[in-house]
Amino acid sequence: MLEIRTFETQDWAGVWSVLEPVLRAGESYPLATDISEAEARRLWIDVPAATVVAVDDQQGIVGSYYLKPNQPALGGHVCNCGYVVVAGARQQGIGGALCEHSQRLAVSLGFRAMQYNLVVATNEPAVRLWQRQGFDIVGRLPGAFRHAERGFVDAFVMYKTLR
Amino acid sequence: MLEIRTFETQDWAGVWSVLEPVLRAGESYPLATDISEAEARRLWIDVPAATVVAVDDQQGIVGSYYLKPNQPALGGHVCNCGYVVVAGARQQGIGGALCEHSQRLAVSLGFRAMQYNLVVATNEPAVRLWQRQGFDIVGRLPGAFRHAERGFVDAFVMYKTLR
After folding, report:
1. Rounded mean pLDDT of B83-107?
2. Phi and psi dihedrals of A6, rounded to 5?
3. Could you report the predicted ipTM of this complex, rounded to two decimals?
């Protein structure tokens, strides 16, 4: 049983346990691989308009996403989200469920579109997942991501009009 | 005679006189059209890695740009710039001179590429100028900019590898 709900303060330890290895790996998010827990919390919890968690009744928190405006005022009708799913529970539909949830939440908050600014091209499962969710690759940024293992790799801008 | 040099504190009034009407118009930057001078100063001067001004020996400050990393650490080798030229001195090469200056500065600061995230499609002189400067339109964002006069219009992601 998977519950998807708004982040609550006591969820942070669980979110961080999912998020930290992803950030340390340096393969999908541009944040520094040695980012402090406090800075990660600021960016995942404090800055966004909303943060959501996926809670498995056996495993606890297995995923999370944030949602925020991608630009200020005259671009503020387009939101941006970032997602994370714990390594041991991938390919089970959690990422897709979070993405669907985020699109509904975005519409309910008045956003008209969703944009991912830096989808790492080598992160093929993510690219395929967003495409299945109706996102288009609208741009390719040559060498825009410095992958911890592979060096400079391309990244995609992906976009979906929500209404 | 046009001098292009680093912003100094006493330049702010001149920069703001160029920047304010552009922001109030709501046709090219996503910032709120009623943005305060203090917030504009924070975004144009304090946040960026560098701010530069174009000074005409008769007219004073006629243009400016900022330069900053477009993403954090693993995307921090790509910079972002924003430019402004006073309405009465456009189509005289000042924008191009600022853009060339910014590319040299970016390389000297260690950046490998430059990205514009939200070039408003209806701002055709800007699109053409960046193309002449070697920037590619790498993506089109449908309806991503809420133009003060025209409503929702498309915006381009533009990108140039510098080295």
Report:
1. 95
2. -60, 140
3. 0.96
Chain B residues with CB-CB distance to A under 8 A? Answer: 26, 29-33, 35, 71-78, 112-113, 115, 117-118, 138-148, 152, 155, 157, 159, 161
Other Cβ atoms closer than 10 A to B34? 9
Number of alpha carbons in the 13 Å side-chain half-sphere of residue A51: 22
- Do residues A162 and A113 make contact, with C-beta atoms less than 8 angstroms apart? yes
Name every residue whose Cβ is closer than 8 Å to that of residue A128 and which is 6 or more positions away in sequence: none
Chain A residues near any Cβ of chain B (below 8 Å): 26, 29-33, 35, 71-78, 112-113, 115, 117-118, 138-148, 152, 155, 157, 159, 161
- Domain residue ranges of chain A, discontinuous segments joined by +: 2-161
Question: Domain A2-161 belongs to what architecture?
Answer: 3-Layer(aba) Sandwich (3.40)
Yes or no, beta carbons of A113 and B71 under 8 Å apart: no
Q: Is the whole-model pTM more than 0.90? A: yes
Per the rule left: phi > 0, alpha: psi between -120 and 50, beta: everything else, A129 is alpha
